[in-house]
Specification:
It is built from 2 helices and 9 strands; from the N terminus they run ααβββββββββ. The chain is an alpha+beta fold and 184 residues long. A hairpin with a 4-residue loop joins strand 2 and strand 3.
């Protein structure tokens, strides 16, 4: 050992601890800025095998335009996917009135950050199929008067949502499959 480590072990300990804290804090900020909440962490409503109608059920006509909406209900629809959601009450879950998934996918609830998706509040992994009144549990409750997004994300082989790997699905024009909604 050199002279510094034998004379000043406490100072050396604090320098190492401080460096570790700075590195951990910076890594956490970087992760938060990328919109992820659960790298390697299971979400409350993941791996739902069935909820509501099974594949092959019928859905009411609600418009095929991206992001079409009525007074308080919005939808996204193409041949393989449909998301329809009404404005939501505040609380710790979001209920999607109609969902059609062309393959196993994540439905992810984001805060809206202007016109872009912001922080992720919750995610649920669901099998291919057609669903009514599908719920996604949140890790933080919705706030009154704010805008949120429900998005379809792809899923990899594991059952853990990872915002860096399970990326948003896009339609044939390259547009993310999402629906805006507000809280009442």
């Amino acid at each position: 050992m050199d002279q510094f480590t034998t004379k000043y072990p406490i100072i050396l300990f604090f320098i190492i601890a401080l460096a570790g804290g700075v590195i951990g804090f910076a890594g956490g900020l970087s992760y938060e800025r990328q919109g992820g909440i659960s790298l390697g962490k299971k979400m409350p409503s993941e791996m739902v095998e069935e909820n509501g109608n099974k594949e092959g059920g019928s859905l009411p006509e609600i418009g095929a335009a991206f992001g079409s909406s009525t007074a308080n209900r919005a939808s996204f629809e193409n041949d393989s996917y449909l998301l329809a959601v009404a404005d939501q009450p505040t609380g710790s879950r979001v209920t999607l009135s109609e969902v059609k998934l062309g393959e196993r996918s994540w439905i992810v609830i984001h805060e809206a950050s202007g016109d872009a998706p912001g922080m992720i509040l919750g995610a649920g992994r669901f099998q291919k199929g057609v669903y009514s009144n599908l719920t996604v549990d949140l890790v933080r409750p919705l706030e009154s008067g704010k805008t949120y997004l429900a998005m379809i994300h792809q899923t990899d082989a594991d059952a853990l949502f990872n915002a860096l790997v399970d990326l948003p699905l896009k339609d044939s024009s390259g547009t993310a499959m999402l629906v805006r909604f507000m809280t009442e």
